[in-house]
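Researcher: Batch entry, complex prediction.
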Amino acid sequence: MSEMTRVALDAMGGDHAPGEIIKGAVEAVQKRKDIKVLLTGREEVLKKALSAYTYPEGQIEIVNATEVIQTAEPPVAAVRSKRDSSIVAAMKLVKRGEADAFVSAGNSGAVLAGGQILIGKIKGVERAPLAPLIPTAKGAALLIDCGANVDARPSHLVQFAQMGSIYMEHVIGKKNPTVGIVNIGAEEEKGNALVKETFPLLKACKGINFVGSVEARDIPSGAVDVVVCEAFVGNVILKLYEGVGGTLIKKIKASMMTSPRSKIGALLVKPALKATLKDFDASEYGGAPLLGLKGLVVKTHGSSTAKEVCTSIIQCVAFKKHNISEKIQAAVQKTPDEDQGQ
Amino acid sequence: MSEMTRVALDAMGGDHAPGEIIKGAVEAVQKRKDIKVLLTGREEVLKKALSAYTYPEGQIEIVNATEVIQTAEPPVAAVRSKRDSSIVAAMKLVKRGEADAFVSAGNSGAVLAGGQILIGKIKGVERAPLAPLIPTAKGAALLIDCGANVDARPSHLVQFAQMGSIYMEHVIGKKNPTVGIVNIGAEEEKGNALVKETFPLLKACKGINFVGSVEARDIPSGAVDVVVCEAFVGNVILKLYEGVGGTLIKKIKASMMTSPRSKIGALLVKPALKATLKDFDASEYGGAPLLGLKGLVVKTHGSSTAKEVCTSIIQCVAFKKHNISEKIQAAVQKTPDEDQGQ
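Model: Structure tokens for the complex:
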């Protein structure tokens, strides 16, 4: 049997916790023999919920945590004060080396803050970026950073490019992934101060396949595999993807209900349409990794159901198998300046 | 007869120039008696093209300009060196008060740079923002700024909110338009340094209907009428709108061709679907104004056809009728600080 990947799972976080979270854990261990899930949360609640399922019992363990950090709580204060919350308990397991990874659908801010405060960054990593996969015409691209690190510096963006490339290649399986920096034009001299300063550093950075600027227009068609930007812009991209897609789909559905003729047509195209829209739904891609920490942290959507939770848990196996943390540490220790000097 | 609005039109700019540009001018004067178009470009070419149409001849005049600024030319250098280009000639007409407005589908950078260099900003205006209308579920919102003014300061964003509100209310006809600042969360303490500094200034600014932060996710559903952001973020929003919409529509069309059943359905839904997609196409909204200049400058899409050119020309009438430049001058002279001190 291959080595076990131990995943600490926040059983109390998310809109559908603990029901869907626990179901996701059960599905993951039913599918894979090489995963052990450590469920953090209220023991009596979790025990009862688990008793409804049949699964390989040695692969799920409950770690009691009596508190819950709510979605709307101020993140940093919550992480510091609720020491016995399901999020903090799970992070401590990673910190102590008792778990390899942590998955949560709970309070995003608490997961991001807790990751940096409790688990800590890999030596040499300046900031830990959140890097969701977004759907494109060619499959998916990694959008890095969408986290809470606003007002980034050029050196941060270079590390995002390095970490994103490693994740995309080894966890997602995209060989020699292309890297682009989000810009307002294709030319090197275009952009704001941050992009102009970062561009030559990315060009000089060894070990990544930097292809230059990418305009927002070209992201959905799959122009690059790793989309580098600072977190404010990344957040706008991620949310607007969702917003434009959602509004457009609503309008299309409404338009099909306007006449008897189009209503019949709608019935006929429905199955094909449904498959396409699912393809273009970011939530199909499991969770977003928070990269650069001593252990993997995966944030899944607050509205995650069992399926997304299961996908997110399984993602952790590749992360561990390919020693992503070690690869990141090796990459960031060679700064672009050192590369240039060689 | 009401007062004439004199529109200088760059007949040589855009993918379909001069044919579609001239056709657009003819359509505008056929529709409206209160418009005079001053076509700038090569006289012999324009004369020949115009001779194919019947129109009220006193309403179109040719102003000879022998040079053309190409789409790929460096904008500032082109505006400075090609003094007899169709863009520079048209801007000079506005500068000298011989035209009220300038419309171009040509080199964006040259139009933006030329507007600031040749026409000049209204007294008190710090930067001239480009403000396209973007489609939403409720109609359209004004996205301000999408121009070349990257690395904006808080005072710029306050003026964008003021100018955008005036344009939205008087030219587009939206009473007391709501204003939101693009942010990564709804709370006042969220955001990057620029947004955090700008937020209290917008709250204190009189004469605008500021409603707080708007997340990118909520822009397409029509959460606010005036979407304020700095130009880099604005450019990302505008281009991503186009990119996500385009990719999604392509995928939907392809999905409908996958089976005989869905092909028949596609035929039935086609008319309704076409109307909806047109509704959600930014190019239907005519050109984007470059606000804050001594005279209106309207940039239409490079791929504009006669219809968009005609719409853009007609937009200029409301701009003149409602004395937008005077209103902007009056608004920016009261800075938020003065308001607070009163």
